[in-house]
Amino acid sequence: MTGAPGPQAGALLVVGDVVTDVVARHRGALAVGTDTAAVIRRVPGGAGANVACWAAHWGWPEVRLLGRVGVDAADWHERELAGCGVRPRLVVDPEAPTGTVICLVATEDSAERTFLTDSGASMRLDPGDWSETLLDGVARLHLSGYLLFSEPSRALVAVALESARARGVPVSLDPASAGFLLELGVDRFLKLVEGVDLLLPSRDEACLLTGLPNAADAAAELSRHIPLVIMKQGADGALVARGGTVRARVPAARATPTDTTGAGDAFTGAFLATLLAGAEPEEAAREGCRAGAMAVERVGGRPPGRAEGLGRG
């Protein structure tokens, strides 16, 4: 590949979901019809918000976030985002409560998780929440794929993509959920993301979007439609695909999983921060893998507090 593109001056604007995560870590199978002992924590979450926090944690100096929350938790989320170095612009919904996700995390080897999702206010972002001025000074727009799973926020995505195209601002998107993708439909998804220059799917999402069972084949096929595809593979690292070809295989960083919630968001945030700093996609993917490894050793989807130091330090 050619040399690094050089750093891009300006902010990263993330548009996406801000939710409250209730993380329940349990050992063994759930006991249906009776009690299962668990360690339960309430933490700030949401794929869009998590990405923004990890990008700031990974050193990008200006990260902004547009999201929608309920009156019930607006102040808390604002404080938590600001504490991570993110400049939040939270629309307070007068009717719907803040979205809530219950994360059931098995404490065995993989720390794999299952989500119960009440999107609440987070999927009620609409074109009225968008302003052209949001792109002032922005070097990249990143969209959470969860925005595609409701009619109001799909309309917002269309407006934001049109605005970014008019200003020449590159746009990235994380598909967010294989389950929701299946409901939306592959053809519809691919049409909705026309104009996106960077897609960051998981292996399951990429295979679903292409109908191909092999991860490398799926990443390569997606890169025929979208210029740059970074496939996140968890413990198997990441694939970098361009122009119908897998250009690089990036190994995962070593980790002892505690909770895999938000690992993909951590990868995306660190990847975007590193890419904006002028790195090639392969180097950015290595940083993404480092952030993902850090994330799975923590409970919840957010990075360490600032007192714990920057991830790249």
Automatic annotation (TrEMBL):
Organism domain of life: Bacteria
Alphabetic keyword roster: Kinase, Transferase
Keyword Kinase: yes
GO molecular function: kinase activity
Organism of this sequence: Streptomyces cylindrosporus
Record's protein name: Sugar kinase
InterPro entries, alphabetized: Carboh/pur_kinase_PfkB_CS (IPR002173), PfkB_dom (IPR011611), Ribokinase-like (IPR029056)
Residue ranges constituting the Carbohydrate kinase PfkB domain according to the UniProt record: 12-303
